């Protein structure tokens, strides 16, 4: 089933519950891309993965640009770096709101925004979830699979590993600042192989296995 929306940014019209942004920053960095996408890249928060002034996830910061470069190599993104045109891909954050000086959200602030992220993720209903970094990976594995207990949160070993979830395939991405030699090539290769497969069977398989 496809969503009836052609909006690229904040396709479902979410309204954040608070504004703690610095002057000149966006109140929040909403989901961005194709709301009918099969691939959903999930970052942590704007202060680390970017978008505080552009309003677009995975822009501005070194970590954000590294993730976007992978998305581009896979053919999901084209056009300007700060306002890419996305095909079959959507980008969003576990914590969408911007915070003073890019500080890390508190546990309470993450909890405040959990329902907004969950509503957006389920409305998009992608086949493949790509959480970036430990916080996003932990949340996705806990919430959308039954397999979190099987894994230590060791991103070096989870990087580019396919994990079956409840209606989703999860492929974690190690935080770009921690990439070792070969990590970028590994995630690109894994996703290229996935694109060449019948990954849309994920829905049926994951429901029974996850």
How would you sum up this structure in a few lines?
With 210 residues, the protein is of the alpha/beta class. It has 7 helices and 8 strands.
Q: What are the salient characteristics of this protein?
A:
7 helices, disordered C terminus, alpha/beta, six-stranded mixed β-sheet, two-stranded antiparallel sheet, single chain, 34% helix, 210 residues, Uracil-DNA Glycosylase, subunit E
Number of helices: 7
Number of beta strands: 8
Give the CATH class: Alpha Beta
Named CATH topology: Uracil-DNA Glycosylase, subunit E
Shape: globular
Query: What is the multimeric organization of the chains shown?
Result: single chain
The number of domains is: 1
What is the mean pLDDT?
91
Order of helices and strands: EEHHEEEHEHHEEHH
DSSP helix fraction: 25-40%
How widely separated are the two ends?
Answer: 22 Å
If you compute it from the alpha carbons, what radius of gyration comes out, rounded to the nearest whole angstrom?
Answer: 16 Å
CATH homologous superfamily heading = Uracil-DNA glycosylase-like domain
Strand percentage: 5-15%
Please give the largest β-sheet.
Answer: 6 strands, mixed
Name of the CATH architecture: 3-Layer(aba) Sandwich
Physical arrangement of strands within the biggest beta sheet? 1-5-2-6-8-7
Secondary structure category: alpha/beta
């Amino acid at each position: 089933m496809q969503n009836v929306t052609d909006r690229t940014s904040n396709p479902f019209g979410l309204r954040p519950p608070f504004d703690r942004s610095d002057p000149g920053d966006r109140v929040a960095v909403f989901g961005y891309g194709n709301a009918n996408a099969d691939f959903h890249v999930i970052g942590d928060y704007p202060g680390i993965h970017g978008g505080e002034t552009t309003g677009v996830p995975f822009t501005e910061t070194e970590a954000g640009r590294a993730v976007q470069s992978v998305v581009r190599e896979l053919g999901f993104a084209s056009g300007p770096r700060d306002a890419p045109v996305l095909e079959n891909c959507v980008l969003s954050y576990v914590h969408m709101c911007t915070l003073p000086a890019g500080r890390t959200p508190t546990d309470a602030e993450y909890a405040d925004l959990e329902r907004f992220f969950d509503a957006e993720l389920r409305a998009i209903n992608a086949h493949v979830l790509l959480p970036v970094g430990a916080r996003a990976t932990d949340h996705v594995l806990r919430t959308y699979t039954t397999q979190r207990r099987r894994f230590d949160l060791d991103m070096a070993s989870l990087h580019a590993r396919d994990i079956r979830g409840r209606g989703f395939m999860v492929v974690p991405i190690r935080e770009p600042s921690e990439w070792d030699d070969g990590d970028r090539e590994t995630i690109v290769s894994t996703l290229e192989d996935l694109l060449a497969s019948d990954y849309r069977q994920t829905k049926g398989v994951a429901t029974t296995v996850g």
